[in-house]
Amino acid sequence: MPRRAPKRPGPNPWVFAPLLLLPLLGACSGPQIVDALTPRSGYTVTTDLPFSDDPRLRLDLYRPDRPAPGAPTVVFFYGGNWETGDKGMYRFVAQALTSRGYSVAIPDYRLYPQVRYPEFLRDSATAVAWVRRHGAEHGAQPGPVAVMGHSAGAYNALMLAMDRRWLAEQGLDPARDLRAAVGLAGPYDFLPLQSDMLKDLFGPEKTRPDTQPIAHVAAPLPPLFLATGTADETVLPRNSRNLAAKAREVGGSVRMVEYDDIGHTRIVAALAAPLRWLNPVLDDVDGFLKSLSQLGS
Q1: Helix (H, G, I), strand (E, B) or coil at 230
Q2: Model's pTM, two decimal places?
Q3: Which CATH number fits domain 3-292: 3.40.50.1820, 3.40.50.800, 2.10.70.10, 3.40.50.720?
Q4: Pair 170, 125: CB distance under 8 Å
Q5: Cα dihedral 149, 150, 155, 159 in deg (nearest 10)
Q6: How far is CA 248 from the centre of its chain?
Q7: Which range is the signal sequence, renumbered to this chain (predicted)?
């Protein structure tokens, strides 16, 4: 059974209403509010490092002032239904993780309709390979990396961990080159598709089962941390529950957390400095990754 994490008590949520309503805000105002409230100390950042020839394929690399011994570099993939998103909007995620001693890479990947499945996975794998091979040259912590994502980004992260094809194209192996995979509110088992956009994105119906992370669960797996909110109506909690159960069937190490009364946006919004009272996702991810370091994984 997954561990259930109750919502933390905290200040009046109306104080932070603009942040909680980020998906409903204008294209500029939401990121600006988050960015303005994100601390700018405790880390250094190098922006727009190219990891492939395409001009969109750049990443921002954040290094903590105080690295945690043995902590992996985290490659974070943002969500946006594979059709929106920009790495510059997620400094709040990098600040949260660098505050715990992790180096963090946030790459852009190509979006729909420029590309369709599986090209965004190839972009994600290319970013991981670059960090694995070149991150230390830019001050990141060396060694196997942890992949992490929210929503569509969690899909990208978990597909790299489950479906060996994408990292193999880069000469990498998930069991060797990934310290862990962390998914926040990810879609892992979401057939049948409903929207015309997703049907176009993921291709013909007969091949869609192959696009699902749950279809590629096989030993050996990197350790998994899967988190969902019980109030998530965008990506249903069954996605995380089903993947956790399947991974355990093959002997995988899985930590599964459900946050009571938390929806799709709040699970990642709680990484922002003024919203960490919403749920302990930062503590939980940090504890999970640090436990792997202590075990020497």
Answers
A1: coil
A2: 0.91
A3: 3.40.50.1820
A4: yes
A5: 20
A6: 21
A7: none
